[in-house]
UniProtKB/TrEMBL annotation:
Protein's name in the database: Glucose/arabinose dehydrogenase
Pfam family, one: TrAA12
SUPFAM superfamilies linked to this entry: Soluble quinoprotein glucose dehydrogenase
InterPro entries cross-referenced by the UniProt entry: 6-blade_b-propeller_TolB-like, Beta-prop_PDH, Quinoprot_gluc/sorb_DH_b-prop
Domain Pyrroloquinoline quinone-dependent pyranose dehydrogenase beta-propeller, first and last residues per copy: 55-387
């Protein structure tokens, strides 16, 4: 069964796939020769054309920040402000330094290559942590590094090989490492307790234990105000509108329902189609604090902690909705702003979906030191920059 974080892009013509693969191969070859992937006029023009079609609230602007990626996914901002992005398709983590602080990357360098579907990124105590599909590894990092100075150190082996392939990593105030692993199926009882859950480890990968369970595919994972927030992809094959996609405030030992329950109208509802147990199993499952349309596929999230956006946008949760695949009418393909107190969600960036034509697929967001926000699009291989004012 196809999964939302790694499925074929069915809306493209086969010829487009061949062109995209050929272009990606050319770019990888160029990187071997030069050590740095330069932004070409062709990809810049293409990315900028998409940016010009996106809709944002009055006063906001979207421009292309970088392009030429194969499948850019999650972002991380280094302590010195350099932008790091995982490229699952290329098996590479790239770094985009902006040392003159002009809002444009000085170049694009491969920090680490030969990785297995790298996804989540996190900086902690002199290391860059990378969540591959089968393990969490880390690289020694010092401020300004644009290439790893040594080999990856494996910390934790992760289950892989079926179902959802992305892995996300983040660190809490306690110095512990939190890792999210999606389910191996659409709906099932997992044999591996690490699946469909968030686990916590020491920074060196030791002393792992389950932190939160019942999360089918929690791709977005971020601490804010002492709370760990997560996005979650609900199950498929229950129709166009069931179950709604859900956002959670995780707590140690919390259970969030899957595969037996899902949140509907603020309550946990028993999944009668799956069955297996009785409705009583939902009694101790915690409902989502916010939901959006079913099959929207929420992925990365970021809280806006800058000062450049108007007050109404500060300390709000921004979520990238990657888009649907098993729905009569497509949904998602946008960025929404979610109030962490009320759960109210409203559109922030739209235009990736024109009628039923897909123009792009948002994945993750990050806030820069200058107050701008970045957004990855793995369908076009582009990172956008969102600013406010002139």
């Amino acid at each position: 069964m196809q999964t939302r974080d790694a499925r074929p892009r069915q809306h493209r013509h086969p010829l487009q796939h061949r062109v995209a693969r050929t272009t990606a191969s050319f770019r990888r070859a160029a990187s071997v020769l030069t050590g740095t992937l330069c932004l070409t006029a062709l990809t810049a023009a293409s990315g900028q054309g998409i940016a010009s079609k996106l809709n944002v609230p009055s006063g906001f602007h979207v421009t292309e920040y970088a392009s030429g990626f194969e499948s850019p996914r999650l972002l991380a901002v280094a302590p010195n402000g350099d932008v790091f992005v995982s490229d699952m398709g290329a098996g590479t983590v790239f770094v985009l330094p902006d040392r003159n602080r002009d809002g444009k990357p000085d170049g694009k360098s491969a920090f680490a290559t030969g990785l297995r579907q790298p996804h989540g990124l996190a900086f902690h105590n002199g290391y860059l942590y990378v969540a591959n599909t089968d393990a969490v590894v880390r690289f020694a990092y010092k401020s300004g590094d644009t290439k790893a100075s040594g080999a990856a150190q494996k910390l934790v082996d992760l289950p892989s090989g079926s179902g959802h392939s992305t892995r996300t990593v983040t660190f809490g105030r306690d110095g512990r490492m939190y890792v999210s692993i999606g389910s191996s199926c659409n709906v099932c009882e997992e044999s591996d307790p690490r699946r469909a859950a968030v686990w916590a480890y020491d920074a060196n990968g030791k002393n792992g234990k389950a932190y939160a369970t019942g999360l089918r595919n929690a791709v977005g994972l971020e601490w804010f105000g002492g709370t760990l927030y997560a996005t979650n992809n609900g199950r498929d094959m229950l129709g166009d509108d069931i179950p709604p996609e859900s956002f959670y405030k995780l707590q140690a030992g919390g259970n969030y329902g899957w595969p037996y329950c899902y949140t509907l109208s603020g309550k946990q509802v028993f999944d009668q189609q799956f069955g297996r147990k009785t409705a009583a199993v939902c009694t101790n499952a915690t409902p989502a604090f916010a939901t959006v349309t079913a099959h929207s596929a929420p992925l990365g999230l970021a809280f806006y902690t800058g000062t450049k956006f108007p007050t109404a946008y500060r300390n709000q949760m921004f979520v990238a909705l990657h888009g649907s695949w098993n729905r009569t009418e497509r949904t998602g393909y946008k960025v929404v702003m979610v109030n962490p107190q009320t759960g109210e969600a409203q559109d922030f960036v739209t235009g990736f979906l024109d009628g039923q034509t897909v123009r792009g697929r948002p994945v993750d967001l990050a806030v820069l030191p200058d107050g701008a926000m970045l957004l990855t699009d793995d369908d076009n291989g582009v990172i956008y920059r969102i600013t406010y004012g002139q």
